[in-house]
Amino acid sequence: MTPSAMTPIAMTPIATSAIARASIARTRCARSTSASRPRRGVALMTALWLVVAIAAVALEFSLDARERRVLGMDTSERGVERAAAAGALAEVHARLDYALRVATANARAAILRSSDPWLDVDSLYSGQIKVDSTIVDVRAQDLGTKININTMTEAELHTFFTFVLRDATVADALSEAMLDWRDADDLPRPRGAEKDNYIKASRLALPQNGPFREVEDLLDVIGMTPEIYATVSPYMTTRGNGFINLNTAPAAVLRVLPGMTDVIVANIEQLRSAGRRITSVAQVMQATQRGRPQSPAQAAATSAATQRLSARTTVDTREVELTIIARGGPQSQPARLVAIVERGQQATIGWKQW
């Protein structure tokens, strides 16, 4: 029989029904598979988000623990540094007190230090001190060798700047600007500067209308340049009673005293260079007169100048400022302690500040 002569095979009802059920089953399976895929994707994303959330919480705890650990270490180092600075202050204080009670073995130095046991305090008490395992830097200075910029008058400031800078115009401007910074009003002096002037000059720091806290504050005063500051700052302080030591103060500091002249300054320097200790203002004035007779008016003027100088000067070291810096480690913030030791029957710490 040829293919063209073949007849189709008739499908029985049972076979037809089986084929239909198989087709329905395949359709349902395909639908089930396609529906399960989004559910599996959602579950995977949820798991991933959960992992990220757990990692974020763990990281937060880790950072918090590290911060607490660093803070604890810093606090510990800070405590060690402050303790070391306090220990250094106690040691230097004890040495200064001991110097008041015990004479030096050097005969010539003994003569000079019999009236001033703290002579040359800048050299004798400055340096490094080892407190336990911490190295502490100590800088001592006689406050009688500096001018207190919070107590000086305009005339004294002008005299000082003129003597040091050799420029009367700059001296006028700086003197008035410093007084405008200190005084309580907002009215500028002719060559000074108050709040409005600083704002117009785009200055970030404005006048405090109060005393200078540190000498470094002068860098914020209009007219004060870094070059001028480097020249004048070694003679300045913001602490102390303002008395000038005739035996140790430099010429620039001596020159600001009321009644002081270039001749008197020269005589003071001559007495000191000869190794003679100045015991009073009267001694200086007598050396200045060199035995020359004076008229009644000249004698009265000399007496008035002597009184003015005596009211502002001393002939020994009365106040010592100690700047103490302790550093516990190379990365730690150093502790800084400033104290003033005052001379009386014994050495006393009159003021200190961290």
Structure description:
With 354 residues, the chain is of the alpha/beta class. It has three domains: 41-149 and 238-257 and 312-354, no CATH class; 150-234, Orthogonal Bundle (Ribonucleotide Reductase Protein R1, domain 1), CATH 1.10.40; 273-311, no CATH class. Helix content is 51%, strand content 13%. It is elongated.
Contiguous uncertain segments of 5+ residues: 1-6
DSSP strand content? 5-15%
The end-to-end span amounts to 121 Å
- Structural category: alpha/beta
Q: Which shape, going by the Cα principal axes?
A: elongated
Tell me the number of helical segments per DSSP (H or I, 4 or more residues long). 11
Range of helix content: 40-55%
Q: Give the C-alpha Rg.
A: 42 Å
Sketch the topology as an H/E string, one letter per element: HHHEEEHHHHEEHHHHEEEE
Please state the average pLDDT score.
85
For the report, how would you describe the main beta sheet? 5 strands, antiparallel
Number of DSSP strand runs = 9
Question: How do the strands of the widest beta sheet line up side by side?
Answer: 1-2-7-8-9
**Number of domains as seen in the coordinates:** 3
